Amino acid sequence: MAKRVAVVLAGCGVFDGSEIHEASAVLVHLSREGAQAEVYAPNILQMHVVDHVKGQPTPEQRNVLVESARIARGNIKDLATLDVKGLDALIIPGGFGVAKNLSTWATQGKNCSISKEVEGVLRAFHAAHKPIGLCCISPVLAAKIFPGCEVTVGHDTECEQWPYAKTAEAMKELGCRHVNSQVTEAHVDARNRLVTTSAFMCNAPIHHIHDGIGNMVREVLRLA
User: Fold this and answer.
1) Measured distance CA(149)–CA(65) in Å, rounded
2) If we measure between CA atoms, which residue out of 10, 21, 179, 41 comes closest to residue 104?
3) Which of 51, 55, 68, 172 is the most exposed, having the fewest neighbouring CB atoms within 10 Å of its CB?
4) Active-site residues: which are they?
5) Which structural domains are found in the chain, ordered by start?
């Protein structure tokens, strides 16, 4: 039977939701590997809405589930209905929505809180020894919840190629081990069954990001 993988989204758009290319890459690679994706999102308001042309917040309000449905082509479920028993793995793409809607990392960094619903899902998969795939900024969720875990967000030295490298330092302060990696690579923490890749934490060609997410997906399915 096809492996069933929960994909949790955080909205639609890099600056206030899920990064669309990352979410699409996850779904493409799952399909290519013969797995069945089941897409979920929390039924909550976004922290704010960003005009992606101007890069500035707007006064409107949007719902995370409704916006995520754009990526899922309407085939999406409320995260509150997720049942870990019927699923083989969990993947959470990146995008600022992870740091704004699924957690408060965007405003509080390592002192952030994780949405109770999202934390509950992560802990349920972890307790069931089912693999969790995280890319871009979403490994911060694991760093916050699972002290001592191993993750990657790329490199820990800031430069033009790695503009968000300070994230790695904050994760180390949480007590996790950060492993430097290339954008096309995925890191596997076998003990915690966590698979992470840097994706758009790296200033890289989009096909390299797509390849790195493919490696993450394949490792998640290998562990499932």
Assistant:
1) 29
2) 10
3) 55
4) 136
5) 4-223 (3.40.50.880)
Question: What are the tens digits of pLDDT across the range 82-140?
Answer: 999 999 999 999 999 999 999 999 999 999 999 999 999 999 999 999 999 999 999 99
pLDDT at residue 1 tops 90:
no
Tell me the one-letter amino acid at 146: F
Three-state SS letters, the chain:
CCCEEEEECCCCCCCCCCCHHHHHHHHHHHHHCCCEEEEEECCCECCCEEECCCCEEECCCCEHHHHHHHHCCCCEEEHHHCCHHHCCEEEECCCHHHHHCCECHHHHHHHCCECHHHHHHHHHHHHCCCCEEEECCCHHHHHHHCCCCEECCCCCCCCCCCCCCHHHHHHHHCCCEECCCCCCCCEEECCCCEEEECHHHCCCCHHHHHHHHHHHHHHHHHHC
Token pair for residue 87?
A: 């699923």
CB 35, CB 221: distance < 8 Å: yes
Structure tokens at 14: 């890099």
* Residue 34 neighbours by CB under 8 Å, 6+ apart: 2, 3
77, two tokens: 């479920």
